[in-house]
Amino acid sequence: MPLGVSDVWEKVEMQTTERGGIRAVAARLRAVIAIVPWSMRGSLIGLLLTSIISALLDLVAVALMLPLTQMLMSPESVPSVVERFVVPLVGTRDRQTLLLAVTLVVGLVFVTKNLGVIGIRWWSLGVVNRAQAAAQAAMLERYLRSDFQEFRRRSRSKILQVITGAIPQAFNGVLLGAILVLTDALAIVAIFLALVLMAPLASVLAILVFGGTALLVARVFKPFAYKFGLRGLMLEQDAWSHLNPAIEGFRETRLFRRESLFVERYRINRSQYARTAQRQGILGEAPKYLLEIAMIIGILLIALLLFWLYDEATAFGLLAVFAAGAVRIVPALNRVVATVNNLRAAMPNLTFAADEIRSLEDEVGRVEIAPTSAQDDPVPEEPIEVRDLGFRYATGSRDVLSDVDVRIDRGTTVALVGPSGAGKTTFADLLAGLLRPTAGSITVGDMDLSQQPRRWMSEVAVVSQQVYLWDAPLRDLITFGALRDEVDEEHLADVVRRARLEDFVADLPEGLGQWVGDGGVRVSGGQAQRIGIARALYARPRVLILDEATSALDNETEHQITETIAALHGELTVIVIAHRLSTVKNADDILFFSEGRLAGQGTMTELHRQNPEFARLVELGRLELDV
């Protein structure tokens, strides 16, 4: 089952209280990284090595400050490290020359270090963002590979939130955050080790002041980071529940005069999110100011201790090194605390994404979405055999279909009729390969549709009652987004004609290049269904399923489309779901469904004579026509 946002807080709480909490977080992070292509995982591992290199650069830069300050504070002596390495290099013991050389070396090291850190940071950001982009695409692929029944149960807003919100937060908030914490932590440890070698007692004092303050701040802010992170995640999902009906259901929103209702709900949501973002923002900034206070107090205490323990020249030299270290350590500590808070705030998104990935991986009935290969064996020409077919939805308590046995000859027109809820659309979805039978089988020759659905779908096209249209040129809607140089213009013109779209296209200012608006707002219901029929015919199917495809058409257009269907007789196997019996009166075979069973089969005349329930439907249809 997909993970709901309401479940996330409990899982995050478990991560903080379980003994294996860190292992649980690592496992979730591995689940997210696992969907990144193998070729990119080496780069993610390389991020750890760059963290070590960055820490070493900081260590060298700070350590070189000691000989420089010693030369500045002690005019009579030359530090041993300068004597050993710099004097042989410059070939003189002249103090001014040595001081200039040491200053140049220190300056060069700092410049090199900063440029190196910028380069490492640039590379790290590139790696993480490319991995994030790959993970988002992989997540979309997993959703599209999911079982048809399971996909329909998922919330659209949740799918969008996982792809556009949770996955980026998992990479930028958790993975990149962990890398930044590791980089800064290694740098802090390396600098402290160098300081410990130079002045142990002063270093212990620095650790107590700087480290203690950082730990205190992190511990105080910890529960708030989790709380506000989860609150932000829930508010984001709640926002979709107001945006979707307001925008996608604009027609109904206007008719029911609910504009102000959705606006007010969204305004309240954004106001609450703004307050949450404000609190998250202060959690990110407050540590910086608190640690700056700690730095000032720490440097004063360290100065007092150094001047108490050492002579003036040595104390000044060590104080300069500690100051240089503090300038590097305190911002690093600030970043560590702030990043840890951000990491905790992103943890609900990591949990959300990881559990959704696992849910998708555990699904039964996933399909491969790669295009059918031209080398695949052709689908057999034999009839479609349905034997003992049964189906029950995963959440259902009873069978939607049971004990259906039927043979559909190729090239015939077969109608599926019956009252609402009788199982007609489910049967059509099973024939299309979208659903897998829970009992019985559907075969074509030696091919079982449930075992090779992609191969079978290469020959099937479906026109639904609600044709999906998006804001694109009419040409793209018919070819379903095919690249311009891949479009068969001759075939396109033919399907436009066969779907009775010629006059409509001729009246458009830009013809097939005309944009129809999101959801097809610039076309009528009948025009939308004719676009759907043209789209189906463009796919060159051998089996065409029409699910109430003429329900929104006027009588004249319905008659034209019925003629189109009749013209396909013998060329395609046509499966028609219809409530209006006038649409299917000339079908070769009519399958009458009632309460999930095949209650009758035959021509219109045969069923009218044999089945009282069907005869009643015929009478009601005639009454409707008379009215």
SSE blueprint and pairings:
Elements: H1 5-17, H2 21-33, H3 38-63, H4 65-73, H5 80-90, H6 95-145, H7 148-153, H8 156-198, H9 200-247, H10 250-255, H11 259-309, H12 312-362, E1 384-391, E2 401-408, E3 413-417, H13 424-432, E4 439-444, E5 447-448, H14 453-457, E6 460-463, H15 474-479, H16 489-498, H17 502-507, H18 525-538, E7 543-547, H19 555-567, E8 573-577, E9 589-594, E10 597-602, H20 604-610, H21 612-626
Parallel strand pairs: 3-8, 3-9, 6-7, 7-8
Antiparallel strand pairs: 1-2, 1-4, 4-5, 9-10
Helix pairs in contact: 1-2, 1-9, 1-12, 2-12, 3-6, 3-8, 4-6, 4-12, 5-6, 6-8, 8-9, 8-12, 9-11, 9-12, 11-12, 16-18, 20-21
Describe this structure in words.
With 627 residues, the protein is an alpha/beta fold. Among the domains are: 22-362, ABC transporter transmembrane region fold (Up-down Bundle); 466-540, P-loop containing nucleotide triphosphate hydrolases (Rossmann fold, 3-Layer(aba) Sandwich), CATH 3.40.50.300. Helix content is 66%, strand content 9%. The chain has helices spanning 5-17, 21-33, 38-63, 65-73, 80-90, 95-145, 148-153, 156-198, 200-247, 250-255, 259-309, 312-362, 424-432, 453-457, 474-479, 489-498, 502-507, 525-538, 555-567, 604-610, 612-626; strands at residues 384-391, 401-408, 413-417, 439-444, 447-448, 460-463, 543-547, 573-577, 589-594, 597-602. The chain has a six-stranded mixed sheet with strand order 6-7-8-3-9-10, with helices on both faces. Strand 4 and strand 5 (447-448) form a beta hairpin. Helix 1 packs across helix 12, helix 9 runs antiparallel to helix 11 (259-309) and helix 9 packs parallel to helix 12. It is a multi-pass membrane protein.
